[in-house]
Amino acid sequence: MTVDRGKACLATALAVATLATACGKHQDTTASPASNACSAQHPTGDTTPIPGTRIALHVADGMQVDPGLPGIVRPNTRTSIKVVDQPQPSGSTPPDQMLGKLEDALGRSPGPGKPGLVLDAPKTAEIAGFPASVVTATETRPEGSFRDVLAAIAAPGSFVTFTGTVEQNDPLTNQQLLDTYCGARWLDQRAEANLGFHITPSGDYKPMPSSGSLLFALHGDPGPNAPIFLATPSKNQGPVPPDARRALAEARFGAIPGNPHVDTILETSVAGLPAWEIIGDSDSASLYQMVVFTDRGYILLSGAANKSVADQITTFRQMAQSLTL
User: pTM for the full model?
Assistant: First the structure.
């Protein structure tokens, strides 16, 4: 599963789009609203807060919390549970209505598809005391086959998704993965997150809650048309060879929704590290991107501003250059 980059990262229906657009062919195209995915016994012991979210989960033996995901991983494998806790601006679609749209998309529409992904019909549940929708899937990638368990909950002011991906030979079963979701606990406050780097906001940009990234919005407004700046570390990337860095930066920019167009591209450095800066636009927004390469992969720094807003590129560059590790 991937989360749309750039401006789409802040869409109020982000989590819905993330799951719904991943729909491949369904084993059963009829939703199952009467079935309760959390009817089985689930863990009742200790839970651990997931950094940057208001979710606490039971951590199974052999797994550990990863603040950069954020979520839980089994070291040296591709088995993981990613948690996205996306705040919803006032006036956006209520979480329960978003959940209904999600269930409809998963249960009744084959969607644009994702090669190698087969989803079962969604089931309703209650996770962390809130209405939820759960779907299981199997996925085939070049590196192997995986079992997926996806869930979304409608909490006040947030839409939260769980993306569990398990290697076929992993000891964690689908039921144990589901039980982990069902045993989730809702926190009164968002757990502190430390991504290993810092950005200093410029101008009137204010830090906003975000899972697995640093997010800044102009005047603290997280609305879908507000200018935003996002700093996100790569996941399971490893060092990028020098001769592959420009192509990676161009690929990340090209994946931004809205037909992105490159105006300038520049090799530079940030915090003493090699980087590539790209400035351009899409159909509706001015775009800025800086990819800073580290010994663990890269940090993606990106800004997007609606074309109706005064130019923000200088401010975006200032924030990118403020990166410290």
Answer: 0.67
